[in-house]
Amino acid sequence: MLRDRFDRFAVLALLLVVGALGALLVTARPSAGRQAGSAPDRQVERELLAQARVAFLDRHYGPVTALRDRGELQSALLKLEELDRRFPGEPHGALLRGDILYRMGLIDRAVASLAVAVRGNGDYLDASGPLNQRELVTVAAEQGIPLLRDRVRAQPDDRQAAAVLRDAYYLKSRLAGGCE
Amino acid sequence: MTLPRLDRHFWTVVAAGFVLGLLGVLLAVWGNPENSGICVSCFMENSAGALGLHANPRLQYLRPELIGFVLGAAACAIAGREFRSRGGSAPLARLASGVFLIVGCAVFIGCPIKLFLRLTAGDLAAGAGVVGLLAGIWLGLKGLAAGVDLGRSRAEHGGTGWLIPAGALVLLLFLVVPPPFVIFSERGSAAQHAPWLISLGGGLLLGALAQRSRFCVTGSVRDTLLMGVRTPLIWGLAAFVLAAVAVNLASGRFHLALYGQPGAHLEYLWSFLGMLLVGWLSVLVGGCPFRQLIKAGEGDADAGLVVVGMLIGGGLVQSWGIAATAAGVPLVGKAAVLIGLAFVLGATLLFRLRAV
Predict the structure, then answer these.
(1) Is the pLDDT of residue B342 over 90?
(2) Which residues lie closer than 8 Å to B222 by C-beta, 6 or more apart?
């Protein structure tokens, strides 16, 4: 190191570049040169999307929730079918269907619907999130597993029951936490 | 039965295994996801996400444990005058190995450390992974015996061995003062984490202990297959398992069951194959994902390339939908494991030193 002029030049240039980088970072104003897509933008964008999603679900699925709360479960299911045609693949429809089927006592079908919902959107199991439905998913899985296990034992060829049992185990696994 | 000498090295290995088991569970008690107090592959995926290498909003956090492993190993190696810049052996093969290590882990859902953490929490579904890991290590050893060798690393002038510890320092800076391009999840499993100072402290301690002891999960199994219980490493693994079982039982986290376990799926064949890939690759590159971080901290640029590959892999398994979830293993994940196995077999043929 520092044996000749070239080494000294390289060290001096290195110090200058490091100094310039430090000065740039210290003196830069937060807004100067900020590009779209930086983390603060993305965080805000995410928050906006999350809030917009909740508002969207309230607006479009509100009538279903209202029917469900009034106990008009069949009408709520019919309304959900209509919404499924408008928003195919939207997990909130599957969640509400699971909720309604659970209230109707159709535990196996409720479990299958809830599994579709949770696969589509993990936010339903975030205890602190606005879409939290842990309680519903927990009771459906807890009641569904023994019921479906007995059915599979009694009829080992019942592939549908076996598939729903796997859904119930999936829900239990997701409720237990761990890496996703 | 010949037992190892109960010397200082033996007890260092046992201490490393014990602390790994202890912290592996305690970090989950303190906030990390269930059964993932320490999981190098999950943490790689989280860190890759935080750096913008994938866009899964539930898996983005710079895990301080990873930074701690590298810096703890580097500090310990420097203090013990064992830090040596070395490398130059099959760099691209090692980089690709790093990617496929994470592919195998992502399909199983966890690295070899998490495999044992899952098992010690009563997750019987991890059993297929244990069999796969043992099979992979056995196949790797057969390859070594037949002359498969990526080559020895050489001392390098220019100090490339400092790059990974320097990178870890930069990541530590990003963790403490996040720049605009680093993003952390506010929901999902990456939002679950122990206080960062505790995670970093645990990582530093484990990095130092693992550097001193050379402890490694796959290395323990490999040496046991070669030397039986004479190797101190198997006693380190035993201490790891005992400590993890004890803390899991004490903290009420032991649930013996095949179904409904956290971060686990029921596709046993793919759990087996995923861990087979990890075990085989680990023998080929000289250690499990955890050991690669420790060696990179000691100045091993070859291990550093595996680490870079693992970070790239952490981004790819999420971006390309390779990673398994509790719902099962996606088709892309299954294909990626088979491509990984084809890669190992290709490397086995290409890197074999044959008698003339």
Answers:
(1) yes
(2) B137, B140, B141, B282, B283
Q: Encoding tokens for residue A178?
A: 């761990």
The tally of domains found in chain A comes to 1
Interchain contact, A170 vs B264, CB within 8 Å: no
Percent residues over pLDDT 70 in chain A: 93
The answer to whether the Cβ–Cβ distance between B57 and A39 falls below 8 Å is: no
The three-state (H, E, C) secondary structure of B252-284, written as one string: CCCCCECCCCCCCCCCHHHHHHHHHHHHHHHHH
CA distances from residue B175 to A127, B28, B191, B243, B333 in whole angstroms, order as listed:
26, 20, 14, 30, 30
Query: What is the average per-residue pLDDT within B302-308?
Result: 97
Residues in CB range of B107: below 8 A, 6 or more apart:
B270, B271, B273, B274, B322, B323, B324, B329, B333, B334, B336, B337
CB-nearest to B180 from A38, A126, A128 is A38
So what's the ipTM on this one? 0.84
Q: Which are the contacts of A58, defined by CB distance < 8 A and separation ≥ 6?
A: none
Shortest Cα distance from B190 to chain A (angstroms)? 8
Q: Across-strand partners of A33?
A: none
DSSP, collapsed to helix, strand or coil, labels residue B53 as coil
Supply the pLDDT for residue B190. Answer: 93
Residues A26-41, mean pLDDT to the nearest whole number:
64
From the CB of residue B3, how many other CB atoms can be counted at a distance below 10 Å?
A: 11
Domain ranges for chain B, please list them.
8-350
CATH number at residue A101: 1.25.40.10
Higher pLDDT among residues B355 and B222, named by residue? B222
- Classified as helix, coil or strand, A126 is coil
Contacts 24+ apart (CB under 8 A), A161-166: A161/A108, A163/A112, A164/A108, A164/A109, A164/A111, A164/A112, A166/B266
Least CB–CB distance from B188: residue in A119, A122, A172: A122
Domain that holds residue A171: 44-176
Nearest-Cα distance to chain B for A39, in Å, is 5
